[in-house]
Amino acid sequence: MPANLTPPYKAAEQRYREATDDPTRLEALNEMMQLIPKHKGTEKLQAEIKAKIAKLKKAPAAKPGGAKAKSLDNIPREGAGQIPLVGPPNCGKSQFLKAVTHAHPEVADYPFTTRVPTAGMMPWENVKFQLIDLPPIAPQSFEGWMTSLLFRADAIFLFSDLSSDDLLDDLEQALAILKEHRISLDHPEFEVSDEDYSLDEVSKRTFLIANKADLDEDSIRLGFLQESYGTKYPIYPINSQTGEGVAALETDLFRTLKLLRAYTKTPGHPADLNDPIVLSIGATVEDAAYQIHKDFAQRLAYAKIWGKGKFDGAHVHNGFVLTDGDILEFHLK
């Protein structure tokens, strides 16, 4: 039986993964326990949540006072998704971030330039994705805080360097290091079975960026990359200097993350089409209200809807399933 985890449950699980202290983790776990569908398909996950709640309740309380060091993985999620950039040293991640966002990471022609995470927003139509440039993945250099950030990611941009004769070895080594930290990088269409779903290990939708395409004469190294990884990941040859190849990546990211955009309006006023609510495909009117605020969803009586294939201003119930481009006018109890 499929788990059929709901958007409110997934939002609570995201808060659990983003939590930086035990009280916040416990609060999120309790909410997850309340929201998880109760059936045979979720029995294993329910047991895992209960075990984590029990462990946190037994944990000694943190001592008050004292300055707290800023955690490098504590980057607030923004936009339609949080996408870390990972790869071996000197693969051009920072140059890519600089090219597609307004961020200003340090860019140099020597390895291990990136030491701390740098975030920037990548626009696609009226949606923005948060990209995070991470330190390189290499033996003896994997930063422990990166595990937490990668666990929370909505997808991964995995970089390879088409200017390097060692690109296949470097990529294999990076994937092995991530696997040691319970992070599997898989095709965007891959779905973890309910039996294998766990809070302690993750499978991440991955887009393989074949960077520095301009330095691969006759696309010879790209051919090697496609032969070795073409069935495991979608591959995007990209020139970070010019931005060539980025448009296809952005479009496929929105599509394969299975997202939709909904808009809101107040009575007598047009909708703001520049500021969508971004939801997963299959989301309902109630899910859209929940994303605005939990209390707002609880007070929701009904909504009016405008959109393709719909009667303008039709009344719809809270469980009505949305499609991309729908406009909602909420009415509260």
Q: Key features?
A:
32% helix, 21% strand, 5-stranded mixed β-sheet, 12 strands, Rossmann fold, globular, single chain, 10 helices, 333 residues, Ubiquitin-like (UB roll), alpha/beta, 7-stranded mixed β-sheet
Description:
It is a single chain. This protein has helices at residues 7-18, 22-35, 43-58, 93-100, 145-152, 167-180, 220-229, 246-256, 285-292, 294-298; strands at 82-86, 118-124, 127-133, 156-161, 183-186, 202-211, 235-238, 259-264, 277-280, 300-306, 314-316, 326-332. By secondary structure, it is α/β, with parallel strands linked by helices. It has 3 domains: 7-58, no CATH class; 82-256, 3-Layer(aba) Sandwich (Rossmann fold), CATH 3.40.50; 259-332, Ubiquitin-like (UB roll) (Roll), CATH 3.10.20.30. Strands 1, 2, 3, 4, 5, 6 and 7 form a 7-stranded mixed beta sheet that branches. Strand 10 and strand 11 (314-316) form a beta hairpin. The longest helix has 16 residues, at 43-58.
Strand content bin: 15-25%
The largest sheet, given as strand count, sense and whether it forms a barrel, is: 7 strands, mixed
CATH class of the largest domain: Alpha Beta
Judged by helices, strands and strand pairing, the structural class is alpha/beta
List SSEs in N-to-C order: HHHEHEEHEHEEHEHEEHHEEE
How many DSSP H or I helices?
A: 10
How many domains in all? Answer: 3
Please tally the β strands and state the result. Answer: 12
